[in-house]
Write a structure and sequence with these properties.
five-stranded antiparallel sheet, 3 helices, alpha+beta, three-stranded antiparallel sheet
């Protein structure tokens, strides 16, 4: 309900620390990327691809493990293979999300209503 959304938004305000990072591997090298630069994360079984404003990185973690480390509220799991950053969404239909960079992510039927509600708070 609305309480749930206000809790999410309070958590969001608390979590919106611009310097937070998560570790990734790039060409076998460990480095940290800024969470706020992540546009979306796409899962591929035992690993995932993290798409940022500054390029694409691979994480050896699963999508669920990465999701657990992201601030809930402005990251939303729209599909079993996608986590999206609400800040970078330009538009959506009932099946796909389009980001400001023109790339797309899938959204599942079960998550669509919740996504729409959250999107309304962001725009």
């Amino acid at each position: 309900g609305d309480d749930e959304i206000s809790n999410v938004l309070q958590a969001f305000a608390k979590d919106h620390d611009d310097s937070r990072t998560i570790p990734v591997n790039e060409d076998g090298e460990r480095q940290r990327i800024l969470i706020k630069d992540i546009i979306y994360v796409e899962g591929y079984g035992k690993y995932c691809i993290i798409r940022t404003k500054n390029g694409t990185f691979q994480s050896s973690k699963t999508l669920s493990e990465v999701y657990f480390n992201l601030p809930q509220g402005y990251f939303f799991k729209t599909h079993r293979s996608y986590i999206v950053n609400m800040d970078y969404i330009k538009s959506y239909t009932d099946k796909t999300i389009t980001f400001e960079n023109g790339e797309k992510a899938l959204i599942s039927r079960e998550r669509f209503a919740e996504f729409k509600k959250l999107f309304a708070y962001f725009k």
